[in-house]
Amino acid sequence: MKKDYWIILIVYIVMQFSIFIGQPLFQFGFQNLGMNIILAGPAWLVFSFTVALIIILFILRKERHAPGLRGNKKSSVSQSIMWAFLGFFLALFSQYVAAIIEQLLGIKPGSENTKQILKIIDLLPLTMMVTSIIGPILEEIVFRKIIFGSLYGRFNFFISALISSLVFAAAHMDFQHIIIYTAMGLTFAFLYVKTNRIIVPIFAHVTMNTMVVLVQSIYREDIERLQRELEAIQNFIGGFL
């Protein structure tokens, strides 16, 4: 793995754990300014993710014209645009299939990770920029370009995509829905290989996250009611099996 890639991984990991230092600092500053200290956590989230993205994009500035995976030619602009839009629907479909599989395995719908994100957005709407744009960009750079790309240089697609997708899933700390996150990772890895352009899975990921956040925010009560009804139906059916 390139030296620059190791630096990017370190920056990403430091960003993830910086909340333990950054949040108390922001709380202290907010308190002195007479601001609500509850906003310190979300504010640090926006700050740390933004700074990490700027640093990582600066490190990658020379790779704009670099060859694609395994030195293969990158897809044309028109093909990339087509796969970017198709990738969004492909990501939704793979997520839907994964959700069905989880339900068949008895895993309840609804993600605690998503609920926590929505609570943070309620506190500070600006954090939607992190969950919808900055976060997906960072994840595609780290988990697809660096981790998957490095593995793909040594192994076949399936092994490389599976390992990087499992790491991607584990990083979300929502192990109950690891199948859904793994399915997402496999989809984005496919888009990356298909086009040799990291911008394609980035677009699909950003679009999907934005849609999910908007839908969950606008129709939250309806979704929670539907989930309760589905759980009741599952419990009712389970009582006869």
Q: What does the radius of gyration come to? A: 19 Å
Helix content: over 70%
Could you give a short account of the major beta sheet?
Answer: none
Count the beta strands.
Answer: 0
Question: How confident overall, as mean pLDDT?
Answer: 84
- What is the N-to-C order of secondary-structure elements (H for helix, E for strand)? HHHHHHHHHH
Strand-pairing-aware structural class: mainly alpha
Number of alpha- plus pi-helical segments: 10
Backbone shape: globular
What's the N-to-C terminus distance?
Answer: 52 Å
What fraction of the residues are assigned to beta strands by DSSP?
under 5%
Write a structural description.
With 241 residues, this protein is mainly alpha-helical. It has ten helices and no strands. The radius of gyration is 19 Å and the shape is globular. 30% of the residues are buried. The C terminus is likely disordered.
In short:
This protein has about 240 residues and is mostly helical.
List the helices and strands and how they pair.
Layout: H1 3-17, H2 19-32, H3 40-59, H4 77-104, H5 112-123, H6 128-152, H7 157-171, H8 178-195, H9 199-218, H10 220-238
For this entry, give a set of tags:
single chain, mainly alpha, 10 helices
